[in-house]
Write a structure and sequence with these properties.
globular, Galectin-like, lectin, alpha+beta, Galectin_CRD, Galectin, 36% strand, 4 helices
Length: 195
């Protein structure tokens, strides 16, 4: 384990504009690949599709600690929804929510960047990042405020809502959908609920 790579997924991530100037997604893919195994090892029992008995609130907070990596029971399918509730940190840089095929392809990488007030989306298939999408009707995240992100898996796309309002659609680039079996969350946020 190399701790300098792990820090990329902590709130110490470099300035988002610096990442963009180094090639954006290609740089990010190298970092994601480097930490996936560590995250899976650290959160082996974190499959939010399965009920787990928690004996205390502290254990629940540890289970949802950021960076987070957990399994999606049965993988994704049309009609399935993932809900992430959390609170943005006081002085946020960025945070990421990624749906992946284990430690392989990235079906959806959503990178929320506060400095530029943008949400970058992309996918990585066979170690190759696709075209990045940026267009959003508004920027919904505010420092120290709670949020609710819903990722709806529909036949041709993921539909993403924040606090009940549609933010963007991201058309599937990874198939089959059932191969999308892992969620990874990192950056300047606290997760309060995941289901």
């Amino acid at each position: 384990m190399r701790t300098e790579r792990i820090s990329v997924l902590d709130s110490t991530e470099p300035n988002p504009s610096a990442r963009a100037s180094r090639g954006g997604s290609a740089w990010k893919m190298a970092d994601l690949s480097a930490v996936r195994q560590e995250l899976r090892t650290r959160n082996q029992s974190s499959s939010f599709g399965e009920p787990q008995c928690m004996s205390s609130q502290k254990e629940e907070q540890q289970r949802l600690a950021v960076p987070f990596c957990g399994g999606i029971r049965g993988g994704m399918r049309s009609g399935k929804k993932i809900t992430i509730m959390g609170v943005v940190n006081a002085d946020p840089d960025s945070f990421d929510i990624s749906l992946t095929c284990g430690c392989g392809d990235v079906a959806l990488d959503m990178c929320v960047q506060f400095e530029d007030r943008e949400i970058l989306r992309n996918a990585c298939v066979s170690d190759s990042w696709g075209e990045e999408e940026r267009s959003i009707p508004y920027f919904p995240f505010i420092a120290e405020q709670p949020f609710r992100v819903e990722i709806h898996c529909e036949h041709p796309r993921f539909r993403v809502l924040v606090d009940g309002h549609q933010l963007f659609d991201f058309y599937h680039r990874v198939t089959p959908l059932t191969a999308i079996d892992t969620i990874q969350i990192s950056g300047s946020l606290t997760i309060t609920k995941l289901n």
